[in-house]
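Attaching the record inline, Q. Sequence:
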Amino acid sequence: PTMLKQTNPLSKYLGDSVQSILPQRDLVVLEASQSLNRAMAALATANILSAPVIDEAKQYLGFMEMYDVAKFVVESKEEIDLSKHTVGEAMANLEIQPVFVQGNVPLSFVLETLSQPHVRRVAVLESDEQKARAELSGAIHNICSQSDMVRHILGKIGDNPSWLKRVSKSAREL
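Structure, as predicted:
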């Protein structure tokens, strides 16, 4: 993605680094070799719909969503025992590219990344000072979702959303 133009009304809210706005989270990280049964249980226990996936070398592969498991089951020609299939198998036929950013990139870059089709969250990878913690989760330090960005922007705007009036106008009104 290219950086948001400085004339964009949101640009003044997006200069911070992505890691500076994210809360500390207990991340659920799935392993590609993990059974789908265990992966679904981990997502359900954490009350989340997706989680990043790593391989045996702790390399980030992308996010697996409950939707991906449902699609895997529906597209199967036979009855599926989720305990006999892995996260890696369910992800094998997905046309996904791992979407990630470094923790020190500006929010403007993250917002542009999140505006791409089918991208609802990005893995935030370690910055140098975070290597020790990241080793536990395959270099994934945190996750930034579209909701995180909205919360940040709304928190910065406060009670004076003057930019909203500008972006709410039609082309004819401008």
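Residues 132-138 have pLDDT under 50 and may be disordered. DSSP finds eight helices and six strands in the chain.

More tomorrow.
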